[in-house]
């Protein structure tokens, strides 16, 4: 029996107890989203409830299904095979959940039931795959383990086919491994945003002369509003380790780094644990699975820098320096970490590799569009009813994610725009919501599909204000090395800020266009892509810019310089509104009237929250005499 | 938060296993900040010697990465989420209100070191937008008036 088969057999025994639990099994999804809404407390409450009632039960953890809107999620699996997911189980709801779900063999806590894991509805509880959020997801491949396995237990991963791809690869010539992922085979390309063919990048590394060679997993997921890498690392960390190890074998790399952003402490914990477990099982280190191939890796924890997501910035950061991007060439494959040949891919790219090796290129290509094989993970946030992470085949219309999975904008609101690919990815107008999710159609609109973040704007959003945000972000995160980016982003912010303050000039539109044009010559992708959202908006939302500049009006009433707060009526909430005002701008007159001192008002909206009938946001310029 | 009841280990002890050219600087700075709550300036020459860098390079790195601080943090840190989902849902209003109540800007602390304001990058807990973190603990979705009450209470009780 091979070393891998031996591992697999042992793992399957352990997994058996999860898949067909001999006794009651209650598991809580523990990930960043669920912890933020109290999943750790829920887990503790379940432990206490189980011991208080003296129940014969196992309490366990899993990763995340991607259903952020329903967290904390608890699964109750009974020995008869019934498995039901419960949603929004706060610690206070635990006694009710346990009471009702365990009242009888077929007991269900209806109020909290979300879905059953069976393919058919059970006692009126719908099947998970029939939920709107899940139905869009034709097949989960990268997320096949998310929510199902305990990400802190390597046996769960192995039992479900994990490390089989690596075992297969180690039996193949390097050339054949590269073929599997190449355009002739699976056609895998990089998921980090640039969409460069992965096998070609790997060939550069393989052909590089110098030693040692490094593999790097980019987990710096710095795009605000993107959290797909986080979900993958928290819920299935071994898929990334396995993919990187296969890459190392195919290219001759002997060491690897996963560069992980500071903001993801749970990812750090789970990736480091996964590395230790892989080492213990002989899946990392010397003579992996008895093949003679040796490779190991570690996690480098970032410290809050967006440009470290750019591969040369990342490399500088690993080299103990400020994370400032360098001019390419030389490319990392020639001179990367410590001047040695290096390959950098997004961690989601690597997670595809074991699947390709395991199931073959034909299987891989069975999902996707004409031009792009496979699936992609996306995160949905912003003005949307269901926030979460999902996986769809390339070519799936954006509309299905926004309206079917996400449930569209909140009640009474309409879709205005979609921001793909982070602050540098651009803005897509609502009329383009039918675009298929793949790089080319987005490129044609001057935007980037990017690494998977989709932020939804409804009609309450101001495009000028969001452009100000994106450019502020680009300025704040610019490394400052090249003038084009350092000063370019600064000028973009200055011009948009004055437009938003009501001091815009008609010539500003052309100035912004000129800047956008010039910034294409910045040294790295950060500066080059920084003006994308503004350039898109000057195409798709030109009237809104003009309304700010010429009409001195913010139609969404967001831009501070163009609105003011007025008290226009009476409300029992006014005394409280006056008390909450952080600058004491609300004046109470002797006749009982309330007014706002415009010199003090910072337009924070707190008073309107408390006295919505009395406080109104009006156009600052249009209403003044 | 850093446990202030016991004194942190000597800096040298924290740095024993570090090597030059081994991707160790960020790890070292994290370790020091976890032990001390910030990176004391006396750590700079020690690190430089250990990693065979100049003190200027170490200092440059500390100031380049936004998570490292050279001063002790306030007793309570409010981290304001700057992400797009929060922005769309009134995050800017929350920032303005926080700054007005506390009388400080981002990356500053009140004079009595009771409360500090820190810019937090989006970590994808967008289901809670708009949110802040109180000493790392996410709280949301919040209204502006809730934030004002919270900031006033913190200021009142001294962090």
How would you portray this structure in words?
The complex is a heterodimer of chains A (625) and B (159). Chain A is α/β, with parallel strands linked by helices. Chain A contains 25 helices and 18 strands. Chain A has a 5-stranded mixed β-sheet, with helices on one face. In chain A, strands 11-10-14-12-13 form a 5-stranded mixed β-sheet, covered by helices on one side. In chain A, strands 8-7-6-9 form a 4-stranded parallel β-sheet, with helices on both faces. In chain A, helix 10 packs across helix 11, helix 11 (237-251) packs across helix 14 and helix 19 runs antiparallel to helix 20. Chain B is of the alpha+beta class and 159 residues long. Chain B has helices at 11-14, 25-36, 43-50, 55-64, 84-88, 91-102, 144-157; strands spanning 76-81, 108-109, 115-120, 132-134, 137-139. In chain B, a hairpin with a 5-residue loop joins strand 2 and strand 3 (115-120). At the A-B interface, helix 2, strand 8, strand 10, helix 18 and helix 25 of A face helix 2, helix 4, helix 5, helix 6 and helix 7 of B.
| Count of runs of 4 or more consecutive helical residues of chain B | 7
Strand content of chain B is: 5-15%
Biggest sheet details of chain A: 5 strands, mixed
- Give the count of helical stretches of chain A: 25
- Low-confidence segments of chain B: none
Strand element count of chain A: 18
List keywords for this structure.
heterodimer; A: 625 residues; alpha/beta; five-stranded mixed sheet; 38% helix; globular; B: 159 residues; alpha+beta; 5 strands; 41% helix; 13% strand; elongated
Topology:
The complex is a heterodimer of chains A (625) and B (159).
Chain A: H1 3-19, E1 24-29, H2 32-36, H3 39-52, E2 57-62, E3 74-77, E4 83-86, H4 94-101, E5 113-116, H5 132-135, H6 154-159, H7 164-170, H8 174-181, H9 198-207, E6 214-219, H10 228-235, H11 237-251, E7 255-260, H12 265-280, E8 296-301, H13 311-318, E9 342-346, H14 347-359, H15 361-365, E10 375-382, E11 388-393, H16 398-405, E12 415-420, E13 428-429, H17 439-444, E14 453-458, H18 463-477, H19 483-500, H20 508-518, H21 525-529, H22 532-540, H23 542-549, E15 563-567, H24 574-580, E16 586-588, E17 594-596, H25 606-610, E18 615-619
Parallel strand pairs in A: 1-2, 6-7, 6-9, 7-8, 10-14
Antiparallel strand pairs in A: 1-3, 3-4, 4-5, 10-11, 12-13, 12-14, 15-18, 16-17
Helix pairs in contact in A: 7-11, 7-14, 8-11, 10-11, 11-14, 18-19, 19-20, 20-22
Chain B: H1 11-14, H2 25-36, H3 43-50, H4 55-64, E1 76-81, H5 84-88, H6 91-102, E2 108-109, E3 115-120, E4 132-134, E5 137-139, H7 144-157
Parallel strand pairs in B: 1-3
Antiparallel strand pairs in B: 1-4, 2-3, 4-5
């Amino acid at each position: 029996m091979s070393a891998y088969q031996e591992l697999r057999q042992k793992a399957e025994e352990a997994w058996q107890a999860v898949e067909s639990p001999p006794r009651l099994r209650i598991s809580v999804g523990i990930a960043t989203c669920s912890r933020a809404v109290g999943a750790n407390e829920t887990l503790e409450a379940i432990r206490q409830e189980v011991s208080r009632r003296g129940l014969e039960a196992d309490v366990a953890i899993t990763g995340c299904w991607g259903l952020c809107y329903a967290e904390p999620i608890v699964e109750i699996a009974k020995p008869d095979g019934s498995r039901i997911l419960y949603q929004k189980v706060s610690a206070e709801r635990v006694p009710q959940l346990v009471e009702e779900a365990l009242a009888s063999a077929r007991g269900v806590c209806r109020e909290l039931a979300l879905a059953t894991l069976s393919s058919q509805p059970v006692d009126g509880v719908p099947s998970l795959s029939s939920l709107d959020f899940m139905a869009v997801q034709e097949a989960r491949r990268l997320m096949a383990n998310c929510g199902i396995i305990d990400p802190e237990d390597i046996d769960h991963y192995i039992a479900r086919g994990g490390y089989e791809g690596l075992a297969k690869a180690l039996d193949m010539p390097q050339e054949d491994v590269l073929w599997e992922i190449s355009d002739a085979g699976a056609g895998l390309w990089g998921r980090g945003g640039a969409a460069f063919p992965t096998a070609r990048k790997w060939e550069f590394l393989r052909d590089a002369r110098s030693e040692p060679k490094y593999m790097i997993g980019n987990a710096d997921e710095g795009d605000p509003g993107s959290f797909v890498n986080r979900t993958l690392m928290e819920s299935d960390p071994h898929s990334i380790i396995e993919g990187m190890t296969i890459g190392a074998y195919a290219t001759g790399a002997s060491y690897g780094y996963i560069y992980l952003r500071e903001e993801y402490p749970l990812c750090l914990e789970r990736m480091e644990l996964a590395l230790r477990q892989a080492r213990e099982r002989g899946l990392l280190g010397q003579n992996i699975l008895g093949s003679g191939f040796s490779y190991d890796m570690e996690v480098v924890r970032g410290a809050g820098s967006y440009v470290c997501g750019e591969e040369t910035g990342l490399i500088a950061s690993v080299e103990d320096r400020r994370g400032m991007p360098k001019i390419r060439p030389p490319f990392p494959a020639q001179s990367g970490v410590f001047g040695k040949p290096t390959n950098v891919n997004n961690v989601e790219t690597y997670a595809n590799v074991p699947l390709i090796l395991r199931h073959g290129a034909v299987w891989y290509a069975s999902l996707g569009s004409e031009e792009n094989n496979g699936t992609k993970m996306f995160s949905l946030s912003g003005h949307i009813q269901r926030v979460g992470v999902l996986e769809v085949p390339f070519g799936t219309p954006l509309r299905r994610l926004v309206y079917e999975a996400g449930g569209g904008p909140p009640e009474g609101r309409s879709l205005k725009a979609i921001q793909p690919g982070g602050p540098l990815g651009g803005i897509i107008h609502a009329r383009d919501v039918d675009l298929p999710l793949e790089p080319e159609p987005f490129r044609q609109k001057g935007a980037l599909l990017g690494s998977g973040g989709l932020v939804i704007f409804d009609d309450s959003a101001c495009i000028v204000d969001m452009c100000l945000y994106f450019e502020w972000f680009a300025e704040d995160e610019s490394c400052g090395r090249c003038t084009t980016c350092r000063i370019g982003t600064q000028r973009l912010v200055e011009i948009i800020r004055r437009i938003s303050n009501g001091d815009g000039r008609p010539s500003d539109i052309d100035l912004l266009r000129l800047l956008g044009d010039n910034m294409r010559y910045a040294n790295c992708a950060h500066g080059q892509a920084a003006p994308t959202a503004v350039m898109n908006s000057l195409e798709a939302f030109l009237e809104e810019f003009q309304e700010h500049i010429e009409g001195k009006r913010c139609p969404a009433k967001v831009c501070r310089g163009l609105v003011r707060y007025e008290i226009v009526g009476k409300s029992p909430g006014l005394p409280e509104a006056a008390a909450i005002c952080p600058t004491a701008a609300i004046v109470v007159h002797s006749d009982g009237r309330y007014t706002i001192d415009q010199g003090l008002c910072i337009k924070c909206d707190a008073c309107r929250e408390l006295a919505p009938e009395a406080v109104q946001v009006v156009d600052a310029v249009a209403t003044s005499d | 938060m850093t446990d202030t009841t016991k004194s942190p280990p000597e800096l040298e002890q924290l740095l024993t296993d570090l090597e030059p050219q081994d991707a160790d600087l960020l790890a070292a700075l994290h370790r020091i900040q976890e032990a001390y709550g910030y990176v004391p300036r006396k750590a700079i020459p020690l690190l430089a010697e250990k990693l065979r860098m100049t003190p200027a390079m170490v200092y440059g790195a500390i100031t380049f990465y936004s998570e490292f601080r050279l001063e002790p943090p306030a007793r309570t840190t409010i981290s304001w989420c700057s992400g797009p989902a929060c922005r769309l849902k009134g995050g800017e209003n929350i920032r303005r209100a926080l700054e007005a109540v506390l009388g400080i800007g981002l990356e500053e602390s009140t004079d009595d070191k009771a409360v500090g304001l820190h810019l937090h990058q989006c970590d994808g807990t967008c289901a809670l937008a708009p949110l802040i973190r109180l000493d790392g603990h996410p709280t949301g979705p919040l209204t502006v008036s809730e934030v004002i009450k919270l900031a006033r209470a913190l200021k009142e009780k001294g962090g």
